[in-house]
Design brief:
Length: 181
Amino acid sequence: MLSELTSAWWLFLVTGIAWLVIALIILRFDTTSLATVGVLLGLVLLIAGVNEFMIGIVRPMWSWAHVALGVLFLVGGIIAFAQPFSAFWALASILGLLLVLKGSLDIVLSAMTKSVNEFWWLGLVAGILEVIVGFWASQQVAPARAALVILWVGLLGLLRGISEIVLAFHIRHLHQAVGTR
């Protein structure tokens, strides 16, 4: 059974390459192409939905969570295609909120680990920067928000593509190991 599950390792390679191509395209945009970024966000969400369904097949224990996330991604992708400008600005608002929350948690964690972590200040600096960038993304000046969202979506697509390619070769290695038994 494991051999069957790992035989489709190349699908993760294909989706990883697709993520890299999308990240490259997104990082070439500027603030004048917000609708295009909204459409590409829809494409990214659709690919992420399909990808979550594939992960649900490979990880049967958590398949229900991956299927649910895949459905949410597919719905989000369809909405992004229907309203690309709204999708872009919703992404900017969510990104700002997430950065403020993550930065706050990093600040608290660095303060809590000060006695056992000699680099606690690094977490503090990172947390403060995340909070500042989060508020910057939440402000009302459109070009600044747009540039930040384009950068973050591009970088997240790049990281997702790299992780998908690494996962593909890890699954390929497992497939080869199972085949030799």
